[in-house]
Amino acid sequence: MPTLIVVVVAWLMLVVQGAVGGWFGEWLVPQLAISVVVFLGLERTMVAGGVALLMLMWPVEWLVGGVGGIYSLGLVAVFFMMQLFRGRVQGSWGLSRGIVAGLATLVHSLVMLLVLTLSESGERVMASIAWQMWTSCVATALATLVVGRVLGRLDRLMDPRRGRNVLEFRS
Amino acid sequence: MLLAWLEHHRRKVVAMALLLVPLVMFATSAGATPGKDVGAPARYAAVPMGWTQSKVSALLGVTGLFGGAGSSELRDENARLQAEVDRLREENTRLIGVLQENGRLRELVGFRERHPEYNLIPARVIARDTSPFFRVLKVEISADAKLKPRMPVVSAQGVVGQVHQVFEGYADVVIVSDPRSRIDVVSQRNRAQGVVEGLGHERDYQGRISYLSERDEVVVGDVMVTSGMGGIFPRELVVGTVAEVQESQRGLFQEAVISPSVDFSRLEEVFVIAGAE
């Protein structure tokens, strides 16, 4: 699937989550931005995934409405971490990828906490992150399995040979 | 030459850009303090997202869940009756929505009549933030409304929060329970002073009242209103009700948990106080 379409689909998912997010309360919030970055990190190269992440960065910041930049910095850390895992975890969107997504969510929160600790003491913001990261890690892990399957299905629809060895007859 | 160099080092270039962009965002942000002017590109870049969220919330807000019900494999008569039931149900749902909206608007008009001194700008809630750490509402405003960061936002039930960032036709509102929010309050009963701070966690939308003097008597059920100190919120706007009084953790002060008077999960229309006469 071309990078631009991945970006548009991810953008739509995030925008719709913002619009209907109030239905599910503020306690158990899956972070779809992390799910998308886990997909990009595991399924795309550094360049293709990195460009998609760069294109999504500002929309994500706008949708989060948090302390500018730190959410994106966390996403970059997750992306780099996923690049290390690329090709080393289960191929389908199953349990192991869910666990990886949960870990990625914790890493994302820890990076945010680290940046806040080094830059300015937003004590209550930090308490909020430290409190919510645990439930969010579970919610995001589950959401990642869905997001990964949806994006993976779109990948296969647009590029059926992706990730498979296919014999070709060449003239 | 440059293109060839970029092509050769594209991985490093992308990695550097990934690290630099968030750092630039962070350096140019207001940090953990709400209220910040945004530049012209950012103001307009928010329009497509705000427009999509506005359409999605309008679609799903009132009739979206019930609009598509129907039957397919019943006999003709049954199908006709079912279609009639569906139509009436849909109409009923829409009318209930209209009545509820009417009620809310009446409350808002009532608020406006009770406070003629304020210059109130109406806004419609279209979305919420997508992270569990912050409590931000996205509101749609008319394009000619002149909003500024830190302007107070209220509803008929009381204080909602304050404007954080303003975009073209949209604005971010940091609500009372966001961890960046701080509002000076007094008890309506005995004028005990404190500061309501958002928790951003624990039971969804609750906040904490800090810096309440040990000598002041605060009991569950006390209504806390804005004190007018700080110059952002006008006096006597209801913020919430004391839900729990806790033992002091800071020696001189006691703390309390406050339940905001506004039900943020059902909030659809708000007013921004753009000034007072």
Explain the overall architecture.
The complex is a heterodimer of chains A (171) and B (277). With 171 residues, chain A is an all-alpha fold. Chain A is 74% helix and 0% strand. Chain A has one domain. Chain A has helices at residues 3-20, 32-43, 46-64, 70-85, 95-119, 123-158. The two termini of chain A are 27 Å apart. Chain B has 277 residues and is of the alpha+beta class. Chain B has helices at 2-8, 10-27, 40-45, 47-61, 76-114, and strands at 118-128, 136-140, 152-155, 158-166, 170-175, 182-187, 193-198, 207-213, 223-226, 238-246, 253-260, 269-276. Chain B folds into two domains: 36-62 and 71-176 and 270-277, Rod shape-determining protein MreC, domain 1 (Thrombin, subunit H); 182-261, Rod shape-determining protein MreC, domain 2 (Thrombin, subunit H), CATH 2.40.10.350. Chain B is globular and about 75 Å long. Classes of the chains: A mainly alpha (171), B alpha+beta (277). The interface between A and B is large, with 61 and 58 residues. Chain B: It comes from Lujinxingia vulgaris. Chain B: Belongs to the MreC family.
The overall average pLDDT of chain B, rounded, is 81
The largest pleated sheet of chain B is described as: 6 strands, antiparallel, barrel
How many β-strands of chain B, per DSSP? 12
CATH architecture of the largest domain in chain B: Beta Barrel
In DSSP terms (H or I, runs of 4 or more residues), the helix count of chain B works out at 5
How much of the residues of chain B is beta strand, in percent? 25-35%
Biggest sheet descriptor of chain A: none
- Overall structural class of chain A, as computed from helix and strand content, comes to mainly alpha
What is the number of beta strands of chain A? 0
Radius of gyration of chain B, in Å, reads: 24 Å
**Average pLDDT of chain A:** 88
Shape of chain A: elongated
The low-confidence runs of chain B, each spanning 5 or more residues with pLDDT under 50, are: 62-71
Overall helicity of chain A: over 70%
Gyration radius of chain A, rounded: 17 Å
Distance, first to last CA of chain A: 27 Å
The CATH class of the largest domain in chain B is Mainly Beta
Order of helices and strands of chain B: HHHHHEEEEEEEEEEEE
Class by SSE composition of chain B? alpha+beta
